[in-house]
Amino acid sequence: MTSMEIEDPTAAQPQPEQSPRRLRWCSPVLGALLLPLALAGQYVAAAHPDWIEEHYSQSLFPRIASTLARVSTRVPVSLAELLIVVLVVAIAVAVWRALKLLALRKGTGPRRVAVLFNSGLRLLALAGVLYTAYLASWGLNHHREPFATVAGWEVEPPETWLLVEFACQVAEDLNTLRAELEEDEEGVVVIEESPRALGRLARKAYANLEGLHPSMRKAPGVPRRPFASPLLTASWITGIYSPFTAEAHINDEIPAMQLGFVTCHELAHSLGFAREDEANFLAYLACKNSNDPVLRYSGALAVWGYLVRALSIANPTRLIGIVERLDPAVVRDLKSMQEFWVRERTEFTAFATGLNHNYLKSQGQTKGVATYGLALDLIAEDWRRSQPDYQAEPLASALEEVSGRTVKIAFIGGCMIYGGGGAFLSLPDRVGELLIERGVDSRIYNLGSCNQSALQSTSALDAAIDLGADIVVLRFGAAELGAGMRIETMKTAFQRLLFTARRAGIRVLILTSERPGQARHVQSAAAMDQMIQRQAEIRGARVVTNYTKGLPDRLGALRSDMEHPNYAAVLTMGKRMLPDLLSVIATVRKAWALGLVEAEPESEK
Ligand SMILES: [Zn+2]
User: Fold this and answer.
1) Do 270 and 165 sit in the same domain of this protein?
2) What is the Å distance from ligand 1's center to 372 Cα?
3) Does 378 lie in the same domain as 275?
4) Maximum alpha-carbon separation in the chain
5) Are residues 128 and 154 in the same domain?
6) Ligand 1 centre from 258 Cα, in Å?
7) Which CATH number characterizes residue 494's domain?
8) What are 241's strand-pairing partners?
9) Where in the sequence is the domain holding 79, given as residue range(s)?
């Protein structure tokens, strides 16, 4: 009750002259205590995320948010903006009253101090009420369990090769999605959906995520178009969530292709995900799982931004290669987006960013505005999890079937150019383990990732012959298409390879990719698949299809794999990016000669 009295410093204010003396002093003092109490409560909450998760974020908060949303959705415009206007007017009136009171009491020193003190207390009380309301209506969500903890994920910054492979896929997705969208006379994408329609799409997209986390449900409220959009643009703020009214505000002045992602970001806040990285991550997921190309494109553009930032530090050279894969239409969109934000940068931008930075830090997001970018860790982890297993299992079955009981298997191919080599690195080991489990006495030779297509790997095949391999596993993937070979050239190289293998009495097992990379480098990815199938048939090779989108199951083991002496060649490869396969093979041979590579591979133990 005390706080209610203090909440409105104007209308509900008891007349100071007529109030009983005790009440006049007591209520502001009690009200002023509210702020330190709220801060202490927040401090305690931060130490007990499990309790907050269970009793607040998953239990009390959804009820509070939907009650607030029921009220705010009855108002046709943003209720939060209306309340801000009321608050500003109320504070202005209170200040004016205090000044008037001071003017009336000129000359009486102690009384003047009393008025100032009283006003200060009331201001503090108002801050206390607002902050308590903020924490109760939403703010405590900053202290819930992190998404990764609830989901049981171990999240770490993605490794460079994962960034590379992921970026390749996003580039492809952007190209495909962009082709489905319209563009204006300047060649920039046109989003025909109104912000309201995008809001509906975004809410529907979240419905697809049900089951991902206990807090996933229908987002309360409707996204709002704020009157303050120009101010938000000048602050470089794309959207803002109002906890007091459970309203997601979307700045509709921003480039249209960003609207979908921003709407999903603000809806994540309305579902109780307060951390900025998690809101970005969920927005990405919602966009990715949406059926609508507009949302999907918007989400892909957002994650592209994160990947570009990460790769520009981790491996700028590869980044350039991936950027070159973008369709010119996508590049035009990215450019127009960038131009927009550069144009809108004002003196105020840095101030607003600083404000946001400090606000986020005060709420336990220690990295401040850098928290937004941390979303990439979660996004990359999700992507890693969405990859099919490398199919070591079907591969081992295929090998078991074609092999005798003792067999030497050499792996060739798996291109480092686009990062697929990382996957290929662990696959042989995993296959070896599985074969041992099945009682197949196998020797596994990883002839390493090549810097060129498997089709140009005749030297690797020579090495396999030298080793007396019984089976060669040849991997076809993005590299074969990315290498820019024409189908006819491929066919000749492939025939030669199969012929050599056959003459040496080596059986060949071919792994092809479900996602055949950059289709624009060849006439048709399907044509390549067809050619492989046909030639394999003629030459008696076996084809295991749908192999690899390319990531190792045992990400953590990758580094130790690379340190293993058996991987001397790959180690060299990864570090120095040798210009061609011949150098790699030469390195392998030298390593054998020097005794760096053990004669008995790991898998035999
Ligand atoms: Zn946010």
Assistant:
1) yes
2) 8
3) yes
4) 112
5) no
6) 14
7) 3.40.50
8) 248
9) 2-143
Task: Single out the residue of 405, 406, 402, 409 nearest to residue 431, CA to CA.
Answer: 409
Centroid of ligand 1 to alpha carbon of 247 (angstroms): 13
Write out pLDDT tens, residues 313-337.
888 877 887 888 899 999 999 999 9
Q: Classify residue 40 as exposed, middle or buried by CB count within 10 Å of its CB (0-12, 13-18, 19+).
A: exposed
Same domain, 180 and 128: no
238 Cα–ligand 1 center, Å: 9
Domain count, the chain: 3
- Burial of 11-35, coded b for 16+ CB within 10 Å and e otherwise, reads eebeeeeeeeeeebeebbebbbebb
Query: Pairing relation of β-strands 507-513 and 471-475?
Result: parallel
Handedness of CA 410, 416, 417, 418 (dihedral sign): positive
Residues 402 and 326 in one domain: no
The 8-class DSSP code of residue 235 comes to T
User: Are 135 and 210 in the same domain?
Assistant: no
**pLDDT (tens digit per residue) in 385-410:** 665 443 466 677 777 776 666 788 88
| In a shared domain, residues 470 and 551 | yes
Ligand 1: distance of its center to the CA of 171 in Å? 25
Residue 580: Cβ within 10 Å count = 13
Per DSSP, the residues of 479-497 read: HHHHTT--HHHHHHHHHHH
b/e code 520-559 from CB counts within 10 Å (16+ = b)? ebbeebeebbebbeebbeeeebebbeebbbbbbeebeebe
Q: How far is the CA of 367 from the centre of ligand 1 (A)?
A: 14
Residue 220's pLDDT band (cuts 50, 70, 90): confident
| Among candidate residues 386, 417, 437, the one where a domain is terminated | 386
pLDDT value for 223? 85
Residue-wise pLDDT for 502-521, tens only, equals 788 888 877 655 443 333 33
Q: Which of 106, 122, 143 is the last residue of a domain?
A: 143
Q: Three-state SS for 242?
A: strand
Residue 190 host element (H or E) = strand 189-190
Please tell me the distance between residue 264's alpha carbon and the centre of ligand 1 in angstroms: 10
- Distance in Å, CA 307 to ligand 1 centroid: 19
Residue 556 Cα, ligand 1 centroid: separation in angstroms? Answer: 31
Smallest Cα–Cα separation from 297: which of 140, 171, 127? 171
CA of 523 relative to ligand 1 center, distance in Å: 44
Taking the centre of ligand 1 as the mean of its atom positions, its distance from the CA of residue 294, in whole angstroms, is: 21
CA of 169 to the centre of ligand 1 (A): 26
Cα of 338 vs centre of ligand 1, distance in Å, is 20
At CB < 8 A and 24+ separation, what contacts does 346-352 make?
346/234, 348/234, 348/235, 349/234, 349/235, 349/236, 351/235, 352/234, 352/235, 352/236, 352/237
Whether 192 and 122 map to the same domain: the answer is no
Q: Which contacts (CB < 8 Å, 24+ apart) does range 528-537 have?
A: 528/476, 528/480, 528/481, 528/487, 528/490, 531/487, 531/490, 531/491, 531/494, 532/476, 532/494, 535/491, 535/494, 535/495, 535/498, 536/498, 536/508, 536/510
Measured in angstroms, how far is the CA atom of residue 232 from the centroid of ligand 1?
Answer: 13
